[in-house]
Write a structure and sequence with these properties.
Layout lengths: L42 H9 L4 E4 L4 E3 H17 L7 E5 L4 H13 L2 E5 L5 H11 L1 E7 L2 H8 L9 E5 L17 E3 H4 L17 E7 L7 E6 H14 L9 E4 L6 H13 L3 E4 L5 H11 L3 E4 L1 H8 L14 E4 L6 H11 L7 E3 L6 E4 L13 E2 L4 E5 L14 E6 L6 E2 L3 H7 E2 L2 E10 L5 E6 L4 E3 L2 E3 L1 H8 L5 E11 L3 E10 L7 H8 L11 E5 L13 H8 L5
Helix pairs in contact: 1-2, 2-3, 7-8, 10-11
Length: about 550
């Protein structure tokens, strides 16, 4: 049976359930059909504030904001932005780590009619200048930390920026202190003086860009993925249905992923606020801080990347804390090695059952394992409601392959981006016939579960044979001494490319490269066997969100692949 599955005009998903095998394996309570309203993204906060005005929406180390006060702050800040010229088509950048101000300003920009542009706070000046100019950002919002305000202020005379909004990080935003500002800088407290309500803005949810999210994309250098209000509302709604065990207006979410990353933006902010949950916000990941939230607030959910769960599982303090409060923990952003899942669950007794998959261009979630016993180890799950996944031939780029055959993962759904900002050619390279070509290699089984094999660009050609680094990493992780692992192809004069592995061992472990090769001998084929294993004392490089970074590692090593 082929997995060439399409919705016909006038037919909904439930009517086509016999052709969409994944629908039969949804957890009870997850709808098979999805009706996404054309609403502006900020409507999700307005709706929750109307339902649960007194419910805590956001908790930081210093303050707690209920839904009514959070929305009031958003509206006042939006009015202040409008007074300074922010409206439809105006780009406003967020340049900060996780903070209450970041959440407020995200929705304030949208409510004013502007477009959010997320900036990584650890970017160097060169990268910031490039993104400001490419995105046409007019205003930048940051917090009153010298390392950030100095860097942001330095951009004022080197870019198109018209103004810099500086928000407090340590005080209650409901009563901020007015502080003197240099020319071109706007104090958050001054922003709130415009009044309690912004002017109405006519938002076309289907067309207007809510967030310009920069990504390396499926090809090339960083590009701005244009995510509409409906794209992001749809993905929050899809994940809201997937989190069917969450008690609306009751549960809490540990928010430790950086909100400037699309995974956290949707799964740890937009979705929880849509469901009336409480965001337990940390500025960055730390084992002690997460354990403190578990002890004091008994959260029901956490979204993280595999390296976070590795760190928690390997910390001796975990034994002193009760993880029983969690309904489940979600892993995303990077493949979850089976051994990491096993060790985390053994040591915490918490469920890490919901590995999912997505990409910036898809707002980002495309698939997720069901939150039930139907979840399958090694799978990235089922297409979430309203989403269709097809596996397309790597040879011709058009043929839809039968179940269990490997090809490129191609996705469609209401969460698919409008395109790359000012990059028509790059958009046409990944969006074809209304489908997004992800650049990932995978397959689907007869029940609709999707399995990721590797990135197309990460495939290693060893003597003409396709070798998948992710598979090799999975096998290496089965050795009990291995904590972190990256496998990549390196140039080789004889075979074109050879496999190489970089490994960091667990604390207290001592294993040689030769011993590891002996361990792998009966577990990998000769073409898959790493030609060289490098054991590092320092942790492997990671991205801002905490994912292991193959790109940064190869740059460190001076390796250039053809």
């Amino acid at each position: 049976m082929s997995n060439a599955l399409r919705l016909e005009d006038g037919q909904n998903v439930s009517e086509q359930s016999q052709d969409f095998p994944w629908l039969q394996h949804y957890a009870e309570g997850v709808p098979q059909a999805l009706d996404v309203p054309s609403l502006p993204l900020f409507a999700l906060l307005e709706q929750s504030a109307a339902k649960w005005p007194d419910r805590p929406a956001l908790r930081t180390a210093s303050s707690v904001y209920d839904y009514a006060s959070l929305l009031a702050l958003v509206n006042r800040a939006a009015a202040g932005l409008q007074q300074r010229g922010v409206g439809k088509g105006i780009k406003v950048g967020l340049f900060m780590p996780n903070s209450a101000a970041g959440v407020v300003m995200y929705f304030a920009i949208l409510r004013a009619g502007g477009t959010v542009v997320n900036y990584n706070p650890i970017y160097v000046e060169r990268d910031l200048i490039a993104q400001v100019e490419d995105s046409e950002t007019d205003y930048l919002v940051t917090i009153d930390l010298a390392a950030l305000t100095d860097k942001a202020a330095g951009l004022m005379h080197k870019t198109r920026l018209k103004g810099l909004v500086v928000c407090p990080v340590a005080e209650d935003l409901r009563a901020p202190t007015i502080a003197p500002m240099a020319e071109g800088m706007i104090c958050f407290a001054d922003l709130l003086q415009a009044g309690p309500a912004p002017k109405g803005v006519d938002i076309d949810a289907d067309q207007d860009i809510a967030v310009l999210q920069y990504t390396g994309g499926t090809t090339g250098t960083p590009k701005g993925a244009m995510l509409t209000h409906k794209n992001l509302y749809a993905n929050a709604l899809q994940m809201s249905h997937w989190y069917h065990t969450a008690a609306e207006g009751e549960d809490s979410m540990v928010v430790v992923l950086p909100l400037f990353h699309v995974f956290a933006m949707t799964v740890a902010m937009n979705m929880p606020l849509m469901k009336g949950m409480q965001m337990l916000l940390l500025p960055q990941f730390g084992v002690a801080e997460v354990l403190g939230l578990i002890r004091d607030h008994k959260p029901a959910f956490m979204a993280g990347v595999p390296t976070m769960y590795i760190a928690l599982a390997n910390d001796s303090r975990v034994a002193d804390h009760d993880f029983g409060c969690f309904k489940f923990c979600l892993s995303g952003g990077a493949p979850l090695p089976a051994d990491v899942k096993r060790i985390f669950e053994e040591r915490t007794r918490a469920r890490l059952v919901a590995e999912g998959y997505g990409l910036t261009e898809f707002s980002p979630v495309a698939t997720c394992n069901p939150l039930s016993k139907k979840a399958r180890a090694g799978a990235i799950g089922l297409p979430i409601p309203g989403t269709v996944v097809e596996i397309i031939s790597l040879e011709d780029g058009t043929t839809v392959l039968p179940f269990k055959e490997k090809g490129e993962v191609v996705v469609t759904g209401p969460q698919m981006m409008k395109g790359y900002y000012k990059r028509d050619a790059e958009t046409e390279a990944v969006i074809k016939d209304g489908k997004l070509y992800t650049g990932d290699v995978g397959y689907m089984d007869a029940d609709g579960f999707v399995y990721l094999v590797d990135r197309v660009k990460d495939l290693v050609l060893v003597g003409g044979y396709n070798v998948y680094p992710r598979h090799i990493e999975e096998v290496i992780y089965t050795h009990p001494a291995v904590e972190e692992c990256i496998v990549a192809g390196v140039p080789d004069k004889l075979r074109g490319e050879a496999v190489q592995a970089w490994i960091k061992l667990r604390a207290g472990e001592s294993v040689s490269a030769e011993t590891l090769k002996a361990f792998l001998k009966d577990r990998l084929s000769p073409t898959e066997m790493p030609k060289k294993i490098i054991i590092r004392d320092l942790p492997l490089p990671k991205t801002a969100v905490g994912k292991l970074s193959k790109k940064d590692l190869l740059e460190e090593e001076g390796i250039v692949r053809g």
